[in-house]
């Protein structure tokens, strides 16, 4: 472990670490643009110039490996002067269109200009005009004027996705980023270039002009669009704060951005997951409880549903593989109490890729297998329903994507259908009783990814309408049906019950899961390759 | 003085192998391969004090010793920098067009010294004639067994590969040249790693200029002591090519011992100033990137250390002479245009700074200058120098700083009178 001195402080560094990495690991900042921990070193922005004793000139912290006894100064006069110089150069040809720029508020150019810039321009030269809205792919728009040529996006496409769509064109201060004709930025991870763009040059079509970022509330959670469960921040906002043309009143998800988790997704997430929030609004929400198509009070609906469950005959349960462990466990207890047959629906599309994407779109398939047994995932209720062997069918809708909520099997001879879910689609339309449930981003819980990594999903905003967490619906149903289920008051209590019973979850509690999650089920940890 | 580097250039058919061999060509290669170890060749070059002729003046023998001692782990490469693009410089072109085999012999001996299995010659794309001549010369060298497998029966093999550039000044920067040769956009690389550790395709590589390599056969043939007897030993020795251009009667390439007095180049070899009524005003002694000398600073010898003592550099020895009819604002504007156009755009200070300086100079030259521009120009230069990935930023900033400093009155006149004083 090399020891060095940074700004008078003795610091122990990781062998092979750079000066910039070492400073960052100390919780301090040397301003930088082109350096990104998930990409190779480019050393082109020159913002992280620092003074190293005995070096003839300033060196860039991102490319200077620490050595024993090195003396580094990050706040000396020459360093500050160089930083101010770089800021002047960055802003020289920048359009300064912050008032209409989506990046404003989370823009490194703004931040560093305030911290290190001179506050006024010494240039009277006209600023060059480049293209401000270049459609470079299905999800990404490019503003060539705002670009500072840090090459993060190019390196991402070269090194992470290995698709190489982006490149520099032209030379000198005419340099622009672009794609080759007929080769748009259309890889499955294109949205990440928007996240790593330190300025407003790359914006996400699905987010641009939607809101100012300072109005967003960012809640740490996990994506459930596939079995990877990428760690994310869920950005939500309400009507008052958000420019909208759709007359939106309630709080909604506005974007998902990946959250660094070395055990699960590293720095990145796929476009499918990133945009999965849109499906939450792709179908009408079930706002209130319904019975035979008519709106009824929650208590009445629950009482009616309980009555249906209590009747004679076989009960069957169709669950989504995206439900939280808490919901799944609650449904398991209910199923056991009424001797119901349980099936967890499979959602499989496409293939696993070498980066993050999983063909299994069940965001909690592994958790379902742990809680309900693999047999529940292998079982289909279709035949039983067709044969008329099911008297009462409970269909629990998909918490994320209404398209993954099934309609009843054709020709189903089901006497009674109870639907529980966030959207009024599929089985909800034919249900005798439909109970609104919270969607993803509206309830707390845990999910387990294909590696056995357990993470928390968190409530980013209150459920729309009367929707409530699945485990609470179960609790109410059980109560009304006179079944003895624990009277949970919070998701953490449901989890505590589950961990006492499900061997893979034993010894765990919500409080232990932390921000990055934990490996559960005795699965050994390891950063994905 | 005996002409060394240019001894063949005036001969009829000087580019053919027959003429080259007739003048004693390829004897040095024979001598090296038959009687000297690679280390002995390196030692001789080291002893000779030969310094790189491309611009930086780094000791060539010392550079060769940076190559890994361990041979055979990865291929070693020699890269001949023939991308001569510095404005005012045309010495390598003469050697390539008129005596290509001298360069090839130098390439082969140097490859032998550093255990290189391939020598790439990266020629400036605009040098079409050089490319054609070298292509023919390489074919001749292969046919005669001077290149290829088992050269001269020594058991040592070396390939010669010619690579024409695509027209970017930056590709003359050694790491950008490697990036370009590998098929990528010509961007300089961060150092470390240095080319001798990780160069072409990650393999140990030495990059030498054409004129540097052309000196090597003579050092091997005649010895380091002979080389040191020319010019100003120990650090400024050997023969040197000077490219003389500008307001002189006889511009052209001149060979002289290192340390030729500048006035001798201009007034004796160059035949004096172009017009007798226009005296000398300024000289750029080493290609457009080096600081300019005022007429009163021109009592100087053209070698690395004498020019350094005057605050400028020998650079590529492209001596540009300007007479009293020259507008220094306009001259600097032209120089700055070149660097703004050729900046690769990879790193911030050079990308933004070069264009900014050019636009300010455009205004000054056309009478739109402001008082603040003079200090601003100097300041921008200072913000570029030392903060860039490669030396192009320095090359763009140094002339600006020196012109504004040394001819401030002329720049001031442009600001005050919106017109030129010349």
What does this protein look like?
The complex is a heterodimer of chains A (529) and B (422). Chain A is of the alpha+beta class. Chain A contains 15 helices and 23 strands. Chain A has helices at 19-25, 77-92, 108-116, 152-160, 192-196, 271-274, 298-310, 325-337, 365-372, 374-378, 382-386, 427-430, 470-481, 491-501, 510-513, and strands at residues 3-6, 9-12, 49-52, 59-60, 71-73, 134-135, 140-142, 166-169, 176-179, 202-204, 217-222, 231-237, 252-258, 290-291, 294-295, 315-319, 341-344, 392-396, 416-421, 433-436, 445-448, 453-457, 518-519. The radius of gyration of chain A is 27 Å and the shape is elongated. In chain A, 51% of the residues are buried. Chain B is of the alpha/beta class and 422 residues long. Chain B has helices at residues 17-22, 27-35, 38-48, 60-65, 91-98, 100-113, 128-143, 174-181, 210-222, 224-228, 262-269, 304-309, 328-342, 348-365, 371-384, 392-406, 408-417; strands at 76-82, 116-123, 159-164, 205-209, 231-232, 236-237, 239-246, 252-257, 260-261, 280-284, 293-294, 301-302, 318-323. Chain B folds into three domains: 17-229, 3-Layer(aba) Sandwich (Rossmann fold), CATH 3.40.50; 236-323, Roll (Ubiquitin-like (UB roll)), CATH 3.10.20.600; 328-417, NADH-ubiquinone oxidoreductase 51kDa subunit, iron-sulphur binding domain (de novo design (two linked rop proteins), Up-down Bundle). Chain B contains 17 helices and 13 strands. In chain B, strands 8-7-13-10-11 form a five-stranded mixed sheet, covered by helices on one side. Chain B has a four-stranded parallel sheet with strand order 3-2-1-4, with helices on both faces. Classes of the chains: A alpha+beta (529), B alpha/beta (422). The interface between A and B is medium-sized, with 33 and 30 residues.
